[in-house]
Specification:
The protein is largely without helices or strands and about 80 residues long. It is built from one helix and no strands. It starts with about 25 loop residues before the first helix and ends in a 43-residue tail after the last helix.
């Protein structure tokens, strides 16, 4: 997915992720190298089902982001 954001502490994604419907295999990479159509227009940008499952990534839908901006106007500390 374009514009993925990751946690600086744990490395996990900060938003729901797109996961391929099938694990990647050698033929996928060969087709990618040849520039062939891969089904979904963005299939090559999805995460590999052989590495991560939708259940593994469920927590990303509930993750929050905490940050500190010392340059925000009104920060007198």
């Amino acid at each position: 997915m374009a514009g993925d954001l990751y946690c600086a502490i744990c490395g996990g994604p900060l938003r729901p992720v797109d996961i391929s419907s099938v694990p990647r295999n050698e033929s996928f990479y060969e087709a990618l190298e040849r520039g062939e159509e891969l089904g979904d227009w963005d299939e090559r940008h999805k995460y590999d089902l052989g590495i991560i499952t939708p259940e593994d990534a469920e927590w990303t839908a509930n993750a929050g982001l905490l940050g500190f901006n010392p340059t925000v106007q009104g920060n007198d500390q």
